[in-house]
């Protein structure tokens, strides 16, 4: 049996990622808190409620856990509606709270990365039309200026907007996120405003903090043609261009490419210092002339692929390599800002983590510049329209008692973070079924 370790580069960031609405609890003034009150919006009527009680201070014990598990970084988001509860009011106490959290990370020797918009925004903004209203660009810029101005002594890695592609699709095409629209034109408008808001945020952050590094976190989804038909190939490519490529491409060369038309947004060119990649899974794509809202495609998982507990994610680690190779075109270093799987029983997670990280190690060894990896997520949390039905945490959560339940993957990931590598012994111990593949 071969013995060895696949080491990552020195200084590699190892952490987990979280988002305000999903962990803080007691959010009452944003689009999601209102959405959760509407019948039928959240699976099983779930509500974020207390969530992981980070607003009540339990971030301390969770950061302790992450530190004890050898994580040297953490990605969190701040909640716009707390910092700016009304258009003409800033809440300094909320900023103090976030300041304390960032100091808490630094005291634990963990590098903070802060996301400024992660799917939720103030109700007052929604009442003005949210991201469909061009005014959002100025408003977001003001929020960024205020927040970064307050928090910059403790952080230099900034993600203005998390997964603009998922947000636009879920909120304006699929309608499962607020405001629940099914309007492709509105989705494109929202994406355009997000590109412009990102670009403004980029410049404001650099104006405030010379050493800042700013990147978007894009959800990269693999799209492979299901067959050899040219129509399937066209459909997979078109989906990729629109969903994966259009946002970071606009930040790179200032052109928003909507497949059927291109919009020049020259101010957005060159507004990324790193590219954040959220990679979860890969689809097979078949052309379907009847599915206009799904960009004329039918998508499904590769036959025989292992599926996550709720079937939302197929175990397709090769997509990690595709994601990084694609991301390299934008000419900036990359950070894996999310990757994970819903798995309350921790059946698939050990294998999922090991094979995705092995794929990442391979591509880094081919000299693709990747600086870190943030697992989604630290503790089970409120999973948006899927409520509490999915379990993405290295730790589980007992919502009644707020007790954390350590899953075996927590120890597996801790070993990887501690050694800065994947050892044959950790594979042997946690996922012997992949030993042959990883250490042939
Ligand atoms: C989002 C997270 C979410 C995760 C798992 C990502 O698309 O950024 O907020 O919880 O997927 O569903």
According to DSSP, the number of beta strands is: 15
Shape: globular
Amount of beta strand: 15-25%
Q: Taking Cα atoms only, what radius of gyration do you get, to the nearest Å?
A: 21 Å
Based on the structure, what is the oligomeric state of the protein chains? single chain
Q: How would a crystallographer describe the biggest sheet?
A: 8 strands, parallel, barrel
Low-confidence stretches: none
- What's the SSE pattern? EEHHHEHHEHHEHHEHEEEEHEHEEEHEHH
Structural class: alpha/beta
Give the integer mean of the pLDDT values.
97
Give a description of the structure.
By secondary structure, the protein is an alpha/beta fold. Helix content is 40%, strand content 19%. An 8-stranded parallel beta barrel has the order 2-3-4-5-6-9-11-12, surrounded by 5 helices. Strands 1-15 form a two-stranded antiparallel sheet. Strands 7-8 form a two-stranded antiparallel sheet. A hairpin with a 4-residue loop joins strand 7 and strand 8. The longest helix is centred in the middle third of the chain and has 25 residues. The site of beta-D-glucopyranose (BGC) has 11 residues, from loops. The site of beta-D-glucopyranose has 11 residues, from loops.
């Amino acid at each position: 049996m071969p013995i060895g370790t696949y080491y990552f580069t020195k200084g590699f960031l190892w952490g987990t990622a979280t988002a305000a609405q999903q962990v803080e609890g007691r959010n009452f003034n944003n689009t999601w808190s209102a959405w959760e009150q509407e019948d039928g919006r959240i699976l099983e009527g779930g509500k974020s409620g207390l969530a992981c009680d980070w607003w009540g201070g339990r971030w301390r014990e969770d950061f302790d856990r992450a530190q004890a598990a050898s994580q040297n970084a953490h990605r969190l988001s701040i909640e716009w509606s707390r910092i700016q509860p009304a258009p003409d009011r800033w809440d300094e106490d909320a900023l103090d709270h976030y300041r304390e959290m960032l100091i808490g990370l630094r005291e634990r020797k963990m590098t903070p990365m802060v996301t400024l918009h992660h799917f939720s925004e103030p109700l007052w903004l929604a009442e003005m039309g949210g991201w469909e209203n061009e005014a959002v660009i100025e408003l977001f810029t003001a929020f960024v200026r205020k927040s970064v101005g307050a928090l910059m002594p403790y952080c230099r890695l900034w993600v203005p907007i998390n997964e603009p592609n998922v947000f636009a699709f879920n909120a304006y095409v699929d309608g499962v996120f607020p405001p629940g629209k099914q309007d492709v034109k509105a989705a494109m408008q929202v994406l355009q405003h997000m590109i412009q808001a990102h670009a403004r945020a980029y410049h404001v952050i650099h104006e405030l903090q010379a050493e800042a590094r700013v990147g978007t976190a894009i959800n990269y989804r693999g799209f492979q043609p299901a067959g050899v038909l040219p129509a399937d190939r066209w459909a997979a490519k078109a989906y990729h261009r629109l969903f994966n490529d259009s946002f970071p491409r606009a930040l790179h060369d200032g052109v928003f490419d909507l497949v059927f038309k291109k919009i020049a947004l020259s101010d957005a060119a060159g507004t990324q210092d790193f590219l954040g990649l959220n990679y979860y899974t890969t689809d097979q794509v078949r052309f379907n002339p009847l599915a206009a809202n799904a960009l004329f495609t039918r998508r499904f998982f590769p036959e025989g692929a292992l599926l996550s507990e709720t079937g939302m994610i197929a175990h397709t680690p090769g997509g990690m390599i595709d994601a990084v190779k694609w991301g390299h075109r934008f000419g900036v270093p990359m950070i894996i800002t999310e990757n994970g799987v819903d798995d309350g029983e921790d059946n698939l997670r050990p294998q999922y983590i090991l094979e995705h990280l092995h794929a990442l190690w391979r591509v880094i060894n081919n000299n693709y510049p990747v600086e870190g990896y943030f697992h989604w997520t630290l503790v089970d949390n409120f999973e948006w329209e899927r409520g509490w039905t999915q379990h993405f945490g290295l730790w589980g959560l007992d919502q009644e008692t707020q007790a954390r339940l350590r899953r075996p993957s927590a120890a597996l990931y801790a070993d990887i973070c501690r050694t800065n590598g994947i050892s044959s012994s950790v594979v042997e111990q946690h996922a012997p079924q992949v030993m042959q593949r990883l250490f042939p």
